[in-house]
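Homework help board

Subject: predicted structure for assignment chain

Our instructor gave us this sequence and asked us to write out the predicted structure in C-alpha coordinate form, then describe one feature. I got the C-alpha coordinates but I'm not sure how to describe them. Can anyone check?
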Amino acid sequence: MDSAALTVIGILIGILLFGIKSGIGCGFSNITMREILTIGGSYFFLALLFGSIADRISLEALGGFSSVGMGIHILVSLLLIVTGIYTQKKWNSGKDVSSHTFLVLSLPCPVCLGALAVSCILLASTLEISGLKIGFLVGSAFFMAIVGSSFYFRKLGKTPDTLGGIMMMLGIYYMLGVMFIPAYMQTKSMSISSSGGDKIAILPLLVCGAIVLASFFLANLRRHNQ
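My C-alpha coordinate output:
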Protein backbone atom coordinates (compact mmCIF):
# COMPACT_ATOMS: atom_id res chain seq x y z
CA MET A 1 0.00 0.00 0.00
CA ASP A 2 1.49 3.36 -1.05
CA SER A 3 1.86 6.44 1.11
CA ALA A 4 -1.11 8.24 -0.48
CA ALA A 5 -3.48 5.40 0.43
CA LEU A 6 -2.07 5.24 3.97
CA THR A 7 -2.56 8.98 4.37
CA VAL A 8 -6.19 8.87 3.20
CA ILE A 9 -7.00 5.86 5.41
CA GLY A 10 -5.37 7.47 8.44
CA ILE A 11 -7.29 10.70 7.92
CA LEU A 12 -10.61 8.87 7.51
CA ILE A 13 -10.02 6.95 10.74
CA GLY A 14 -9.11 10.16 12.55
CA ILE A 15 -12.23 11.93 11.24
CA LEU A 16 -14.42 9.01 12.32
CA LEU A 17 -13.04 8.98 15.86
CA PHE A 18 -13.21 12.74 16.33
CA GLY A 19 -16.77 12.63 14.99
CA ILE A 20 -17.57 9.95 17.57
CA LYS A 21 -16.16 12.23 20.28
CA SER A 22 -18.64 14.95 19.36
CA GLY A 23 -21.37 12.36 18.88
CA ILE A 24 -20.88 11.16 22.46
CA GLY A 25 -21.61 14.66 23.74
CA CYS A 26 -24.69 15.04 21.54
CA GLY A 27 -26.01 11.51 22.07
CA PHE A 28 -25.74 11.44 25.86
CA SER A 29 -27.19 14.93 26.40
CA ASN A 30 -30.73 16.27 26.37
CA ILE A 31 -30.67 18.22 23.11
CA THR A 32 -32.89 18.28 20.04
CA MET A 33 -32.25 16.85 16.60
CA ARG A 34 -31.92 20.38 15.25
CA GLU A 35 -29.09 21.10 17.69
CA ILE A 36 -27.31 17.88 16.68
CA LEU A 37 -27.51 18.93 13.03
CA THR A 38 -26.19 22.38 13.99
CA ILE A 39 -23.15 20.85 15.67
CA GLY A 40 -22.47 18.66 12.64
CA GLY A 41 -22.96 21.63 10.35
CA SER A 42 -20.41 23.69 12.27
CA TYR A 43 -17.74 21.09 11.52
CA PHE A 44 -18.80 20.99 7.88
CA PHE A 45 -18.41 24.74 7.38
CA LEU A 46 -15.14 24.84 9.31
CA ALA A 47 -13.80 22.12 7.02
CA LEU A 48 -14.85 24.20 4.00
CA LEU A 49 -12.97 27.16 5.47
CA PHE A 50 -9.80 25.17 6.10
CA GLY A 51 -10.09 23.55 2.68
CA SER A 52 -10.31 26.93 0.96
CA ILE A 53 -6.98 28.00 2.50
CA ALA A 54 -5.27 24.59 2.56
CA ASP A 55 -2.96 25.58 -0.30
CA ARG A 56 -1.66 28.54 1.73
CA ILE A 57 -0.96 26.68 4.99
CA SER A 58 1.83 24.21 5.68
CA LEU A 59 2.37 21.70 8.47
CA GLU A 60 5.46 23.66 9.46
CA ALA A 61 3.28 26.75 10.01
CA LEU A 62 0.95 24.75 12.26
CA GLY A 63 3.95 23.49 14.19
CA GLY A 64 4.91 27.09 14.92
CA PHE A 65 1.82 27.42 17.12
CA SER A 66 2.59 24.27 19.11
CA SER A 67 3.78 26.12 22.23
CA VAL A 68 0.55 28.15 22.43
CA GLY A 69 -1.49 25.09 21.47
CA MET A 70 -0.16 23.10 24.42
CA GLY A 71 -1.38 25.74 26.84
CA ILE A 72 -4.84 25.68 25.28
CA HIS A 73 -4.73 21.88 25.33
CA ILE A 74 -4.19 21.93 29.10
CA LEU A 75 -7.06 24.38 29.59
CA VAL A 76 -9.38 22.17 27.53
CA SER A 77 -8.33 19.15 29.61
CA LEU A 78 -9.11 20.93 32.87
CA LEU A 79 -12.39 22.25 31.49
CA LEU A 80 -13.49 18.75 30.50
CA ILE A 81 -12.67 17.36 33.93
CA VAL A 82 -14.39 20.17 35.84
CA THR A 83 -17.45 20.15 33.56
CA GLY A 84 -17.71 16.37 33.81
CA ILE A 85 -17.71 16.54 37.60
CA TYR A 86 -20.30 19.34 37.50
CA THR A 87 -22.56 17.36 35.13
CA GLN A 88 -22.51 14.28 37.35
CA LYS A 89 -23.01 16.28 40.55
CA LYS A 90 -26.02 18.13 39.16
CA TRP A 91 -27.56 14.95 37.75
CA ASN A 92 -27.20 13.13 41.08
CA SER A 93 -28.91 16.08 42.80
CA GLY A 94 -31.86 15.86 40.40
CA LYS A 95 -30.94 18.49 37.82
CA ASP A 96 -30.01 17.87 34.17
CA VAL A 97 -27.49 20.40 32.85
CA SER A 98 -26.28 18.25 29.95
CA SER A 99 -27.99 20.49 27.38
CA HIS A 100 -25.34 23.09 28.25
CA THR A 101 -22.31 21.14 29.41
CA PHE A 102 -22.25 18.87 26.33
CA LEU A 103 -20.91 21.85 24.37
CA VAL A 104 -17.52 21.44 26.03
CA LEU A 105 -17.25 17.98 24.45
CA SER A 106 -19.08 18.47 21.15
CA LEU A 107 -18.11 21.94 19.94
CA PRO A 108 -14.87 22.18 17.92
CA CYS A 109 -11.97 22.43 20.38
CA PRO A 110 -8.35 23.29 19.46
CA VAL A 111 -7.58 19.58 19.07
CA CYS A 112 -10.49 19.11 16.64
CA LEU A 113 -9.61 22.27 14.75
CA GLY A 114 -6.06 20.99 14.41
CA ALA A 115 -7.38 17.68 13.09
CA LEU A 116 -9.54 19.52 10.54
CA ALA A 117 -6.62 21.66 9.38
CA VAL A 118 -4.18 18.73 9.12
CA SER A 119 -6.78 16.61 7.30
CA CYS A 120 -7.37 19.30 4.67
CA ILE A 121 -3.67 20.08 4.21
CA LEU A 122 -2.62 16.43 3.86
CA LEU A 123 -5.46 15.53 1.51
CA ALA A 124 -4.82 18.59 -0.64
CA SER A 125 -1.15 17.66 -1.02
CA THR A 126 -1.84 13.94 -1.47
CA LEU A 127 -4.82 13.90 -3.83
CA GLU A 128 -3.95 17.11 -5.70
CA ILE A 129 -7.52 18.36 -6.02
CA SER A 130 -8.96 21.78 -5.19
CA GLY A 131 -9.10 22.90 -1.58
CA LEU A 132 -12.86 23.48 -1.65
CA LYS A 133 -13.46 19.91 -2.79
CA ILE A 134 -11.18 18.69 -0.01
CA GLY A 135 -13.08 20.81 2.51
CA PHE A 136 -16.39 19.46 1.25
CA LEU A 137 -15.22 15.84 1.54
CA VAL A 138 -13.72 16.29 5.02
CA GLY A 139 -16.72 18.30 6.22
CA SER A 140 -19.18 15.73 4.90
CA ALA A 141 -17.27 12.92 6.63
CA PHE A 142 -17.28 14.83 9.93
CA PHE A 143 -20.99 15.64 9.57
CA MET A 144 -21.99 12.02 8.92
CA ALA A 145 -19.78 10.70 11.73
CA ILE A 146 -21.21 13.18 14.26
CA VAL A 147 -24.87 12.78 13.32
CA GLY A 148 -24.67 9.00 12.91
CA SER A 149 -22.86 8.41 16.20
CA SER A 150 -25.20 10.83 18.01
CA PHE A 151 -28.25 8.79 17.06
CA TYR A 152 -26.47 5.55 17.98
CA PHE A 153 -25.48 6.76 21.45
CA ARG A 154 -28.96 8.18 22.02
CA LYS A 155 -30.45 4.72 21.43
CA LEU A 156 -28.28 3.32 24.23
CA GLY A 157 -30.49 5.14 26.72
CA LYS A 158 -27.65 6.42 28.90
CA THR A 159 -28.03 9.30 31.35
CA PRO A 160 -26.04 12.55 31.68
CA ASP A 161 -24.16 10.79 34.48
CA THR A 162 -22.46 8.74 31.75
CA LEU A 163 -21.69 11.92 29.83
CA GLY A 164 -19.98 13.40 32.89
CA GLY A 165 -17.85 10.28 33.35
CA ILE A 166 -16.73 10.30 29.73
CA MET A 167 -15.86 13.99 29.90
CA MET A 168 -13.64 13.38 32.92
CA MET A 169 -11.91 10.45 31.21
CA LEU A 170 -11.31 12.51 28.08
CA GLY A 171 -9.91 15.35 30.15
CA ILE A 172 -7.42 12.99 31.77
CA TYR A 173 -6.37 11.52 28.43
CA TYR A 174 -6.05 14.96 26.86
CA MET A 175 -3.76 15.91 29.74
CA LEU A 176 -1.64 12.85 28.99
CA GLY A 177 -1.58 13.92 25.34
CA VAL A 178 0.29 17.09 26.30
CA MET A 179 3.20 14.85 27.22
CA PHE A 180 3.73 13.32 23.77
CA ILE A 181 2.50 15.93 21.27
CA PRO A 182 5.54 18.25 21.72
CA ALA A 183 7.83 15.27 21.17
CA TYR A 184 5.96 14.47 17.95
CA MET A 185 6.28 18.04 16.69
CA GLN A 186 10.04 17.95 17.24
CA THR A 187 10.29 14.65 15.36
CA LYS A 188 8.17 16.06 12.53
CA SER A 189 10.33 19.17 12.20
CA MET A 190 13.44 17.00 11.84
CA SER A 191 11.92 14.68 9.24
CA ILE A 192 9.71 17.06 7.24
CA SER A 193 12.10 17.00 4.29
CA SER A 194 12.33 13.21 4.12
CA SER A 195 10.27 11.14 1.71
CA GLY A 196 8.42 9.45 4.55
CA GLY A 197 6.99 12.71 5.85
CA ASP A 198 3.42 12.05 4.72
CA LYS A 199 3.31 8.69 6.51
CA ILE A 200 4.49 10.27 9.76
CA ALA A 201 1.99 13.12 9.43
CA ILE A 202 -1.04 10.88 9.96
CA LEU A 203 0.21 9.78 13.38
CA PRO A 204 -1.34 12.62 15.44
CA LEU A 205 -4.76 11.93 13.95
CA LEU A 206 -4.50 8.23 14.78
CA VAL A 207 -3.08 8.77 18.26
CA CYS A 208 -5.59 11.43 19.27
CA GLY A 209 -8.40 9.35 17.78
CA ALA A 210 -7.24 6.33 19.76
CA ILE A 211 -7.34 8.46 22.92
CA VAL A 212 -10.96 9.39 22.21
CA LEU A 213 -11.99 5.79 21.58
CA ALA A 214 -10.08 4.38 24.55
CA SER A 215 -11.57 6.91 26.94
CA PHE A 216 -15.08 6.02 25.80
CA PHE A 217 -14.59 2.30 26.37
CA LEU A 218 -12.88 2.87 29.73
CA ALA A 219 -15.72 5.08 30.92
CA ASN A 220 -18.28 2.45 29.89
CA LEU A 221 -16.26 -0.25 31.65
CA ARG A 222 -16.16 1.81 34.82
CA ARG A 223 -19.95 2.25 34.69
CA HIS A 224 -20.48 -1.44 34.09
CA ASN A 225 -18.38 -2.41 37.11
CA GLN A 226 -20.22 -0.10 39.47
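Reply (TA_rk): Your C-alpha coordinates look well-formed. For the description, you could write something like this. The mean pLDDT is 76. That's the kind of observation they're looking for.
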